[in-house]
Amino acid sequence: MEARLEALTGEYQKLQKDLSNAIESRQRLDSQLQENEVVQKEFKLLKDDANIYKLIGPVLVKQDKVEATTNVDKRLEYIKSEIQRVEKQLADLSEKSDKKKLEVIELQRAYQVQIQKTSASN
């Protein structure tokens, strides 16, 4: 029973680590979403003939406004779909983690009862 408890605890800890990684991923995506939304708003304020430059490595490369706007729109679409994917992953991991936590608690209780019975019989 002790080995099973250790195995369950290890599984629970792995789920918690996966959950933590997914939360970090979600936070990064939120940050990227906000940054790109700001860029999108700024593009809307620009005139059609405005100069837009994109940093590629150490070089600023001139970019067409339509192309730049399209790239940002596509990036926003991608980030939003990734957020949805990570949200599903978070929900799934939370559910699995909660179930595993209950299993660990139940097994701990059973183990304690077993220890008490063993102690009482000695």
Task: Explain this structure.
A hairpin with a 2-residue loop joins β1 (52-56) and β2 (59-63). The model has no long low-confidence stretch (mean pLDDT 94). Strands 1-2 form a two-stranded antiparallel ribbon. The chain has 122 residues and is mainly alpha-helical. It contains 2 helices and 2 strands. The relative contact order is 0.15. It is rod-shaped. It has one domain (2-115): Helix Hairpins.
Provide the low-confidence segments as ranges.
none
- Strand arrangement within the widest β-sheet reads 1-2
State the CATH class: Mainly Alpha
Annotation field: number of helices: 2
End-to-end Cα distance: 19 Å
Described by the principal axes of the CA atoms, the overall outline is rod-shaped
Largest sheet: 2 strands, antiparallel
CATH A-level architecture: Orthogonal Bundle
Topology order in helix (H) and strand (E) letters: HEEH
Beta-strand proportion: 5-15%
Calculate the mean pLDDT score and round it.
Answer: 94
CATH fold-level name: Helix Hairpins
Query: How much helicity do the residues have?
Result: over 70%
Structural class: mainly alpha
InterPro entries: PFD_beta-like, Prefoldin
GO molecular function, one term: unfolded protein binding
Pfam families: Prefoldin_2
Keywords: Chaperone, Coiled coil
Provide the descriptors you would attach to this structure in a database record:
122 residues, mainly alpha, Helix Hairpins, two-stranded antiparallel sheet, 2 helices, 2 strands, 83% helix, rod-shaped
